[in-house]
Automatic annotation (TrEMBL):
It holds the Pfam family MLTR_LBD. This is Helix-turn-helix domain-containing protein. Gene3D superfamilies: 3.30.450.180, lambda repressor-like DNA-binding domains (1.10.260.40). SUPFAM superfamilies: lambda repressor-like DNA-binding domains (SSF47413). GO terms for molecular function: DNA binding. It comes from Streptomyces triculaminicus. Residues 37-86 form the HTH cro/C1-type domain.
Amino acid sequence: MDREDGESISRLLRAWRGRIDPRTVRELRGVLPRPGRRLSQKHVARMTGVSEGWYRALEAGRRQDFSESFLLRVAEALRLSEAETLTLFLAVCGRRPPERGHAEEDLPRGVKALLEQQVSYPAYLSDVAWNIVASNALMGEWFPWVHRPRPNLMRWALLHPEAREQMLDWEDSCARVYLAMLRVAANSDPGNEELRGLVHEILDADADCRRIWAQEYDVVEHRDGHVFRLRLPYHGNAEIRVTSHVLLPIQRTDLRFVFITPVDGWAGV
């Protein structure tokens, strides 16, 4: 974790700790240091529920098995910004901090505007568990299920009977790909209870999905560029070929911005 250029995480942690006035810390009422003394390692350990030695190891840059929950408590105790919290996580464990839950009204203005202004093709935002966070008007016209309570792409595509009618060549073009995506997501974030529960729910509910899961070992990260065939009531049940495009908003890396475009210049939207 340490670097020789003076910008080690140890130096940053000491600086972040040093800017806090202990008198403003509610948890330290009754144990405040003498006037003029800064927040100590012992105080931060007390605030985060660990031993002084454990916190000292973090600030000294010694590699330990520091949990995400501990690092989040440190970030809260030291009043770190999102950028500072990201720096702490990357320096200590080499990964980003877990994303906090967000409501649709918390979407970055630019991302929401881009979604709403996309009037040529269906577009939507989904989170890491494929919950539909927001969608444009055309997405709702092509796929009315996005307006149902708590819409989830995986549940619809893999469990709902209408998906097998509307997504042609369902097993090879849809089920195998989506299950391969679930396999990547579940292994990339094994502590995500929602993802783990989604996998169990789908496998428990559908025999075809269980068979494919047991037989296949493919892994797919996303459907960007994937071509698939649809037969939707919106198009009079005529067969169409489309491809999906997946973007990751820099302000919300827990979201996928997905839009669907026609293949071969089809423009019958």
